[in-house]
Write a structure and sequence with these properties.
9 helices, 5-stranded mixed β-sheet, 6-stranded mixed β-sheet, 279 residues, Ubiquitin-like (UB roll)
Length: 279
C-alpha cells in the first residue's frame, strides 16, 4: 500500500491543545496516457491525457480511459502496454503509460484532436467543448430484477474493502458487485472517474467486459461522466452514497440505466429505472 499513501507531519488542534503528530495522506501524481498507432513501418505516437491520480493499477486506468472515451472497443485491439522509457527524469517513468494499438485499429482522429487535461476531482471540465462530452449510449436492456434489501449492505461491504480510505479518508472508490450482492472488484483513487476507469480497465484486461449482470457502487456523488462511463461499459445499475446531478439523471434515463442515490442502511432514492428494483 506504500505507493497509495505518503507520510506527513501535521499539527493536530483540539480545543486548546496543539500536538505535532505523524499522519498519512493519499498520494496524488500526474499520469500521462499515450498511444502508439499506425502501420509497423510508420508508427505514430499521440499523447491523449494527463490525469491526476493515485498511483497503482495504472495500466487498468489507461485501458479503462481508452475504452470509456471510445478509442478502443476491446482488449484485442491492444498490442502492448507499458511505462515509457524515453522520458526525462527517472522518477517520471512510472507516470507515463504508452498503449500500443494493433496496426489494423482504425483511429478516430476527431477524438484524438481533443487534448484531455483531467483534474482529480473532475473529468468533464477538462474537455474542450460541450460537444466533446456528448455521448450516444446504447439502451441498457438488462431485464433482471433484484430486491431492495440486497442493496442496503453494499456501502458497508465496499467500505470494509477500502484499505487506503481507512488510513487517509481521502480516496474515492468504485465497487463492482454481482447480482448476489458480492463484491467482485474494487478500485480506489483520488479521482472518482479514475476509480471507475480502473474497474473498467481491470475487466477489460480479463476480457470480461460484458457487464450486463453487474452493479456498480461509487462513493460520493454521481456525475454525468460516471453515468457515461458506466453506460459505455454496459452496466445497467449505478448506485452512489451521494446525490446525482441533473445531467446524470437525464443520461441515465436516456440509457435505461437504474440510477440510485443516497444509498445507506435501509434507504435509497431511485432516479431512473425503478422497474429493476423489487420491494
Amino acid at each position: 500500500m506504500a505507493h497509495f499513501v505518503r507520510p506527513v507531519e501535521i499539527m493536530k488542534v483540539k480545543a486548546n491543545n496543539r500536538e505535532l503528530v505523524s499522519d498519512l495522506v493519499a498520494t496524488e501524481e500526474p499520469l500521462e496516457i499515450r498511444i502508439g498507432f499506425g502501420q509497423l513501418t510508420v508508427r505514430q505516437q499521440k499523447s491523449l491525457s494527463v490525469t491526476m491520480r493515485t498511483p497503482g493499477h495504472d495500466f487498468e486506468l489507461a485501458l479503462g480511459f481508452l475504452f470509456t472515451e471510445g478509442i478502443i472497443d476491446s482488449f484485442d485491439q491492444v498490442e502492448s502496454i507499458k511505462y515509457c522509457e524515453d522520458v526525462g527524469r527517472v522518477e517520471e517513468k512510472e507516470n507515463v503509460v504508452r498503449v500500443e494499438l494493433k496496426p489494423e485499429v482504425d483511429i478516430d482522429f476527431q477524438k484524438l484532436q481533443r487534448n484531455f487535461y483531467t483534474t482529480s476531482s473532475c473529468g468533464v471540465c477538462g474537455k474542450s467543448s460541450i460537444e466533446a462530452v456528448s455521448v450516444h449510449c446504447a439502451n441498457l436492456s438488462a431485464d433482471w430484477q433484484i430486491r431492495a434489501s440486497l442493496l442496503y449492505d453494499l456501502p458497508k461491504k465496499m467500505r470494509e474493502a477500502q484499505r487506503v480510505f481507512e488510513h487517509t479518508g481521502g480516496l474515492h472508490a468504485s465497487g463492482l458487485f454481482n447480482l448476489k450482492g458480492e463484491l467482485i472488484l474494487l478500485r480506489e483513487d483520488v479521482g472518482r472517474h479514475n476509480a471507475l476507469d480502473k474497474v473498467v480497465g481491470a475487466m477489460l484486461l480479463k476480457n470480461e467486459l460484458s457487464l450486463t449482470n453487474y452493479m456498480l457502487l461509487v462513493s460520493g456523488r454521481t456525475s454525468f461522466e460516471l453515468v457515461q462511463k458506466a453506460a459505455l461499459a454496459g452496466i445497467p445499475l449505478l448506485a452512489a452514497v451521494g446525490a446525482p446531478s441533473s445531467l446524470a439523471v437525464n443520461l441515465a434515463k436516456d440509457c435505461n440505466m437504474t440510477l440510485i442515490g443516497f444509498l445507506g442502511e435501509g434507504r435509497f432514492n431511485i432516479y431512473s429505472g425503478a422497474e429493476r428494483i423489487l420491494h
